[in-house]
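TICKET: design request
STATUS: open
ATTACHED STRUCTURE:
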């Protein structure tokens, strides 16, 4: 199974291989982070009686080498460790909330527990399905709007890892000109851009930053169209940017391929994209990746249900509990000692509270 996370500084406490470890437990909606939540976990007694793990993917589906694949890595690890079966279901083009509800309810009806929706688009569906199946634990990634006794809202400080990406980009650029490409113009992706801009400007306040969103809605393909990512990257490179950061799911593959073709840097997202086999021919162009431990969140939720103490409420992952980070897998990045030092210092300052990262 492929490694999807930084291998040097990320904790390995709860997940021994392949996904970033997080010893998080459930918490209420006022929680600050995952590993301070154990006192508020909901619990039940008895042996696990579910059929296994149900996972419903976001747009782009499995094979995006990013967000969805990170969730799948967590599923695989949980299957192995807890001897469970898993069922993962792909999204459909132009699907409605009703389609998502049907998908989640089919998993719950079959006895899968937990059932996890990968992505904020599942919020209405998770809310509806969870009300109908109160004895099933539901998880949703990237949304914290659902308040229910059997729902875990798994959310991340994406702005923090993006800040580190911005610092790295500002240190790596030779033109003081970088670019951000967002998949869809929504608040979640605004967090990526806000952190990236702030991090870059902490290094060079006068740095020039290109910014572009591929689509206004997910249905238009912003997270699932490598061709759109490639076109956006081409435009930003032509404008003078020599380091590009894409928070765009599957579309980011187009950004990475174009950066490789034009001999500039790309920064990956969610998974360590330098390590992804499908991107191997472009790996020398991948400076690093802003990591988001989706796999660890999936694993932790499964573990909590398996042990009879299912997580509920908001469970938040940040730099302080290794829920996000910046990968240093590329030897060329490791050789940039000034960049590595600056990124490490920025991380320490964020964790200590010296730096507060913007979300807008």
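STATUS: resolved
RESOLUTION: sequence designed for all positions
ATTACHED SEQUENCE:
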């Amino acid at each position: 199974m492929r490694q999807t996370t930084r291998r040097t500084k990320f904790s390995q406490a709860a997940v021994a291989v392949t996904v970033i470890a997080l010893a998080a437990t459930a918490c209420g909606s006022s929680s600050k982070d995952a590993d301070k939540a154990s006192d508020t976990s909901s619990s039940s007694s008895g042996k696990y009686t579910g059929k296994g793990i149900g996972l419903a993917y976001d747009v782009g589906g499995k094979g995006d080498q990013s967000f969805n694949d990170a969730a799948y890595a967590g599923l695989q690890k949980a299957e192995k460790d807890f001897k469970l079966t898993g069922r993962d279901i792909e999204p459909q083009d132009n699907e409605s909330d009703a389609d998502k509800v049907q998908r989640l309810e089919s998993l719950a009806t079959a006895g899968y527990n937990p059932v996890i929706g990968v992505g904020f688009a599942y919020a209405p569906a998770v809310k509806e399905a969870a009300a109908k199946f109160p004895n099933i634990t539901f998880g949703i990634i990237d949304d914290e709007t659902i308040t229910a006794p059997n729902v875990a809202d798994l959310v991340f400080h994406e702005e923090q890892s993006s800040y580190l990406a911005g610092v790295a980009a500002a240190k790596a650029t030779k033109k003081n000109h970088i670019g951000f490409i967002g998949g869809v113009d929504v608040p979640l992706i605004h967090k990526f851009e806000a952190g990236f801009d702030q991090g870059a400007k902490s290094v060079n306040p006068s740095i020039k930053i290109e910014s572009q969103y591929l689509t206004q809605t997910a249905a238009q393909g912003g997270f699932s169209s490598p061709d759109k990512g490639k076109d956006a990257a081409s435009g930003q490179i032509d404008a003078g940017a020599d380091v590009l950061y894409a928070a765009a799911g599957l579309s980011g593959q187009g950004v990475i391929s174009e950066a490789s073709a034009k001999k500039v840097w790309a920064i990956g997202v969610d998974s360590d994209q330098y390590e992804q086999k499908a991107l191997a021919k472009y790996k020398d162009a991948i400076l690093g990746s802003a990591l988001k431990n989706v796999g660890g969140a999936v694993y932790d939720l499964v573990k909590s249900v398996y042990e009879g103490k299912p997580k509920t409420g908001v469970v938040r992952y940040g730099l302080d509990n290794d829920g996000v980070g910046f990968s240093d897998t590329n030897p060329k990045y490791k050789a940039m000692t000034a960049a590595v030092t600056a990124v490490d210092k920025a991380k320490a300052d964020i964790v200590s509270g010296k730096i507060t990262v913007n979300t807008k």
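CLOSING REMARK: Residues 187-203 form the longest helix (17 residues). The longest strand covers residues 177-184.
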